[in-house]
Amino acid sequence: MKCASFKEPLMNSSRPYLVRALYEWIVDNDCTPHMLVNAEFPAVQVPQGFASDGQIVLNISPSAVRSLHMDNDAVSFEGRFGGVAHSLYVPVGAILGIYARENGQGMVFELEPPVMDDDEPEDDDVQPDDNGPPEGGGQPPRPTGRPSLKVVK
User: Residue 36 and residue 54: Cα distance in Å, rounded?
Assistant: First the structure.
């Protein structure tokens, strides 16, 4: 079903919704939610001394953090590292995965490029690909090859 304007609607990222749902599911099952974060993503505020290879794993269980706030833009909370309190801020695009420490159940996400602010100029030098199907041709082309899923333990 198409919108009245006959344009495909732009949808919000599903990542924040999945992160919140998986967090709730992990906690409801009496497990410890851990969040894998790209520590080098713009606007991430995590203790860099605890990051390894540009990534950090954060225990976000209710007993480990204070003032946990999850919305469509970011996850923020207060946590302790080496006995020192830190305020952490993780944009949703920096979240690489969320899983239960006890059994590894959860989800890993693909890398997401940083979102440009409306204030930043867009690159107008991008030219359309002449090899693609003509615009307005209806359905987008189907991907070729076999679908693949990765089992995460």
Answer: 11
